Amino acid sequence: MSRSTTPEYLRFFPYEEPYEHQHEAMGRIREALDEERNVLFEGACGTGKTLASLVPALDYAREADKTVVIVTNVHQQMRQFVTDARAITRTEPIRAVVFRGKASMCHIDVGYEECQALRDTTREVVEKEEDLRSLEAREAELLDASQSGNEEAAEARGAVMSELESVQQELETIQEDRNVCDRFYRNLVGDTDAFYEWLYEDVRTPDDVYEWAEREGFCGYELLKEGMDGVDLVVANYHHLLDPFVREQFFRWLGRDPEDVIAVFDEAHNVEETAREKASKSLAEVTLDGALSELEDVEDYRAEAAENVVRAFRDALVATYEDGMTEFERESVGDDWEDLTVDREEGRDALTVDFLQRYTGDGYDRDLETALELGATLDKRYEQAYKDGETATRKECRVLQAASFVESWMRDGKKAGQYPVVSVRRDETGGLRGRAELYACLPREVTAPLFGELHATVLMSATLRPFDVVEDVLGVPDPVTMAYGDPFPKERRRTYAVDVPALYARNRDDPGVQETVTQVLTDSIRMTPGNTLAFFPSYAEAERYYHRVETDATPYLDRPGVRAEELRQRFVEDDHAVLFTSLWGTLTEGVSYDGDDARTVCVVGVPYPHLDDRMEAVQRAYRGAFGDGGNGHEDPGWEYAVEIPTVRKTRQALGRVVRSPEDFGARVLVDERYTTSEAADLGQYSVNGTFPEEERTELIDVRPGKLKFAMLNFYGDVDAWGPEGPPAP
Known about the structure:
- This protein is α/β, with parallel strands linked by helices.
- It is built from 28 helices and 18 strands.
- A 7-stranded parallel β-sheet has the order 3-4-2-5-10-1-11, sandwiched between helices. Strands 14-15-13-16-17-12-18 form a 7-stranded parallel β-sheet, sandwiched between helices.
């Protein structure tokens, strides 16, 4: 197809020709945007979903005067977006900004509240300076007139001189006593034209902006915020759309109402968990202690009422975790938060009951209202003290934080979809500290209002299906759905389901099972002409087989806290290596292993998440919201919350290899629950049927001892071994 016969929107496409599936997807997305409909778009890894979404979105946005915002929660994808956006700017002039939060861009390293106070004071300084210049100019005019004999001018000049002196004194007081930001001051008074000319010449990263501003003495973050107004494309993080408070400001920086924004969500299967995190609220014991200390120094009639509710809640929290654990459990608590069960089927949770028993005032709701009023007063006082230079940092109001949370806890704790949790961990002194949390089980409480406000959204992922589950969980109204399987040659990939006994928790320590899995991994690595990725349900299982498997390949072990990108780089630079990692780590999705970077990927076991009380609460919430047996799902609780997200994790891992038409590789699923032959016997324990149909048809069941021969034949067929030939099976 020649460019002259292709749709107009392809002028944004930066390469010679799109894949056939890209071409079709772009047309359907363009039609959906015309109809103001949301899109659910699944496409195999490495097949150009980003461009297929961006190209029609940018075309429509230019025609309809909209702004396109593309967001991700994966750092490597952010870099890929920059690459794609730069390529688009070579074909069609667009203004694009890559936005990042203040925490990583502040040149003087202050918090959000401090930054806000500094900005306010700095603006006040600039305004006073402008007033001063205006008064000085007026005074000079009146002086000239009075010297010409104009008595009214002479009288008016006296009043101006008095006002000028007053403004001068105010300005000197601010400059001497109050905190200002020198970098933001330069933003306000300096010439920023050179920055914006530079910014729009190309697609600049936040690091580029930071370095430019650092060198020139400006605040790069504030310049970037100003630079988003009216641009064609913004690349940002999930946080900027899924956090309701941040989202409101973000739209203001864009200079757009929500209905004038088209949002593209990358790795959209992650939206569910991120939205849940943004909707959850928590309050630590240390904050309650801080609020009580704060109240000790407050001389205000409202302090007693505030102290009543804060102390009762704090003491109830401590009693809840101390009484809720045995001595052995208390001794075993570590540095990470551990949940305690406080929710009850009937009535309020244990923490609320204890709080109401301990509260001794005339009405906790009235005292809470008083505490909120006092907290707001104190917060304004702290802000003014920082602005006036009375304090070196902007003090946070713990009373306001504590009262706001307790109000939410008492109001929302028993609402559908809210799960009250008490957690405990060991602090740096060796003692125990608690935390109360309202865990939000239904992410659509965050996402449904957003999708209703925006002009349209495109949610794209390699593992988005089943679409009806996405519609339910995220509250996507009447979406256009499209799914494109792997378009690359089938003969250049194989997917094996190895009939290893189901790796339930009870089987993982069985010596015979461990020996079988070890042999399967050993054969997979030996029969791979290059690098192998080995994914496990946990880091502990990855480490177990890191020590068990012995081959001539260089082993790499991923651990929590290890810099994953550095490890990945060392792995891909090797020519015969194996990487052992967790499916729940950062190397499973949004990470490319192209060509020789990895030839085989093994997924050992079905990576179900830890089935704790929170997961049970999510299942209950989904059953309550979506019923039993609705939409062909026998148990929406289990399927929506556990099984489908788990299989998505597995599919993401499989997508790490074979990412271009010329690429080739093998995918090995090590667990009988993946096999087709055992699906009927395993019944509800099989996950075979959760895969999309076209992926199921590619699954090849194989016995453990036969895998090496299957892989030997496959890699021989694609002529992968080179002059040295294959190893002996």
